[in-house]
Amino acid sequence: MAIRTKVNVDPSFPLSSMTDLVFLLLIFFMISSTMINSNALKLLLPKSTNQVSTKPEAVVSIKHLLPSNTFLYYVNSTKHSVAFSDIERKLQEHLADSDEPVVSIYVDKTAPVAVVVDVMNIAKRNKYKVLLATSPE
Questions:
Q1: pTM, whole model, 2 decimals?
Q2: pLDDT digits (tens, 9 = 90+) for 1-57
Q3: Residue 97: Cβ-neighbour burial (10 angstroms; 0-12, 13-18, 19+)
Q4: Buried b (16+ CB within 10 A) or exposed e, 29-60
């Protein structure tokens, strides 16, 4: 007489580990989605290690002369400074044929933020993207 053993296979699957995994993924995506900032202007702040793949088509440099507290503006690395009132016209001339114009702003550390914002407002009026140039860390 052969001895038969009862083999009962339990068809259920333990879902507790699966629910833990789904819960952890949910928490991860909730936290990472709140860290993403959608700024109207794409900026790089001073002392940054980030790199941007977009190449600027125009460059505005602002030099702060400390003794007289005046500013010199240069468009596209020209040797001669430009008056602030002429910056918009020079940028429009240079970026007239561009599909997605990008302006990079180089500023002395000592320049006040208001001066930089004035140049950014020119770019915003003309719907240019703005990059604030930084020095590597």
A1: 0.59
A2: 677 777 777 777 777 788 888 999 999 888 877 665 543 333 334 555 666 666 778
A3: exposed
A4: eeeeeeeeeeeeeebbeeeeeeeeeeebbbbb
CA 54, 36, 113, 129 dihedral sign is positive
Angle formed by the axes of helices 113-125 and 84-94, nearest 10°: 40
| Distance of alpha carbon 42 from alpha carbon 52, whole angstroms | 10
Q: Note whether residue 121 is domain-resident.
A: yes
Given a contact cutoff of 8 angstroms between Cβ atoms, the answer to whether 72 and 63 are in contact is yes
**Sign (positive or negative) of CA dihedral 83, 87, 88, 94:** positive
Would you say residue 73 lies in a domain? Answer: yes
Q: Residue 88 is part of which domain span?
A: 58-132
Average pLDDT of the chain?
Answer: 79
Backbone phi, psi, residue 123, to 5°: -65, -40
- Indicate if the alpha-carbon torsion angle 27, 31, 34, 37 is positive or negative: negative
Look at the chain and report how many structural domains it folds into. Answer: 1
Cα(125)–Cα(27) distance, rounded to whole angstroms?
Answer: 40
